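Here's what a typical entry looks like (Cyclic nucleotide-binding domain-containing protein):
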Amino acid sequence: MSAAGRAAELGLSHVLLEKTDHLSDTIYKYQKGKHVMATPSQLILRSDMDFDAGKREAILGTWNDQTEALKVNVKYNAEVKAIKGTGPAISGSVHVIEIRKRDGTKETKEVQRHEPPYELTLTNGETIIAENVVLAIGTQGNPNRMRCEGADLPHVQYQLDDPTEYIDEHIVIVGTGDAGIENARGLAEDPAQRNTVSILNRKVDFATAKDANVKALQADHEAGKLTIRLETETAKIEEGFIALNTRDGEERIPCNRVIARIGSAPPRMFVEECGIAFTGPDRTAFPELSPVFESTAPNIFVIGALAGYPLIKHCMNQGHDVIEFINGNTELKPADEPILEAKFSDLPGNNSVAEWLEFLRANVRILNGLNPLQMREFMLDSDAKYYRKGEVIFERNAPGSSLFAIADGSVAVQVDPDDPRITVPIESGSIFGEVGLISGRKRGATITAAEDTICVEISRLAALKLQSQSEAAKQRIERISTERQLLQMFGSGLTSEDIEEAVETSEILSVRAGESIITEGDEGNDIYVIRVGSMVVEKMIGGKPVFLSYLPAGSYVGEMALIAGGQRTATVKAAIKSEVIKINGDAFAKVLAEHPELMAKAKRDMASRQDINAFVEAKKDSFSGVVDMYSEVASFLVDQGIGEATDVLLIDENLCIGCDNCEKACADSHEGLSRLDREAGKTYAHLHVPTSCRHCEHPHCMADCPPNAIHRGPDGEVFIDDTCIGCGNCQRNCPYGVIRMDKVPPKKPNLLSWLFLGWGPGPGEPDKGWANENSDPDVEKPKKAIKCDMCAGINGGPACVRACPTGAAIRVAPDEFLTVARFEGEDA
């Protein structure tokens, strides 16, 4: 529409072919009353058509009026089924495409590109001859489909036209891109409709949605209008119900309707038959385009979502710009040029924006699959940085979740914190910082520029978006992270070449909470490395499962069957939703055989696990009650989220006298606001898990913090800094209810003033009456997120533990107590 408007304004011969009886079909199919955003806000609009944020109906009305005013030549109900060049064949331009038939079989077909002019054949048999073709068909006509059992049931749909049509239904929205979020909010907007709306997100991040949409969705969730289900996938769809795989296991909820908004892919076969090549073989790849949108078929230009640019303002600018280029304006720069010029201004040399984009794309392997247009969008969310030789890029234990890619030069990884001279190089084209990206943990090593170096710093959200859009980038990131995790874990002088086969044959598996990766008695010799999450090990004793040990992220398991042979001796299952690297046992056996030091280490680990098994077997009669009790307590702790904790507060109720000194000390150490609720939480036997931060291995609270105010400290503590804006996202995302939103009370008089003069409210958190009475009535204090920070920076460690007069309160890491081996040698 925008391209046709520009052609009309310039007086060029043109026709706009619309396969429907209306303009702008994608926007037309938006749900009624939808608020359309005009992002990115910093980008100017060049189109002859006006566009600003507003209601769908108003925007479509404006475009209809302006299309008529410009006398755009529109041909409705004109669906194109083929585009073929009628000029001479282009030498060497034959390419092979794969055609998938409806019966599931495939066949290949050779396509020969021809010079323009092009013959466009419509479905009604009419033909049109054009010297230039602008292909702006989007991808909405080719939506991704659900692939679970029951996906073909009639109540599964991929479009929502009018949310007011649905009344008193249980509706599940699958997908948390902009379309899914807007559908969910539209269905839940009017309480009179009485819809129960849930929206499913496979991850904890909203990588593909606009920030304003995410904030509005979370506000609706907090208000009780709808339910956001994080780390949740569809397992099975039934009549009236849907089964979900959640972070805590399978759940079945009522469901009358499923609306799947899980993206779309280019109509590849049609596009390839036009003579247009793609950037890669995977389904989500985009056409190969020049910086002026021209495809590999001369004079066929591709713009909009089909080019990888789904935002409306981008599409409209491209429509304007491509017509300018066709008309001979070769000097016109893209509308985002000033923004990108500023990003590249600190790099050495006088390269243009286009030259820098191609330099980064060509030299960074994870970006190789992006076309120039996608590179422009990608760099709007990333930063190009130049480091002098010896300059520190980041330090060991520093917080950070961004990913770095080396476009030129190299970096040195300081592997020994005591001797910075011992380094490992990472060469140009590769990445680093992937540990922070995957786990959210602090930086594992100090990295410096080994020479003058150009890097791209990719924010966590930009990296997640890149992986969701480019299968090739996702595979490269996963391969590098797998290789480095194995080298770091097994050491013993291994090199990348030593483990190449093991890495190439490995696969990353997502494991539901409670799902087993190894089952006692089964055959198999594969090794499993825990990438994200944690596992528990159980053994059947006397017909009952006995808890043996806890395995945090960074552990591995499965070596016993590989080294000693035989069946699996225990069951290993996910304590929470986890990811594991499955390493082919035969490939890893070759590595062990060629490296005696690694074999010796594996045998020591195996011996330790064999000792635990033997201990349990030996004690199963005499200490069966103790072992059973321990196993039940350990299982209880895992159910309380200890499986993903790095530090947890436990209270022994046999010792606790209820003095609340722990809460008072916490408040007095933190601006008068306690981070601990001693009485809240659950108890098993005499072990109580109060409401206090677990400092999760992969913190849910970090998932969507707009000011990036949540970090990890050097000791693993998760803390919130002073940039908190009080949005409440962290509170909503925490599954354990350990974050509160509150105003910081006024400063209290010191303890001596209270003791001798009666000033102030005394030790602990002041009551609301005192706080309000002593606050400045003219200053409205904003709320901030309050959570345990493990008393970071306070001498002596956690105040709650120090203040306990009986020793009932302890803070420990799960792997310090979640093992049956702690019973060994004790007088049961």
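Residues 633-823 form one domain.

More examples are in the samples folder.
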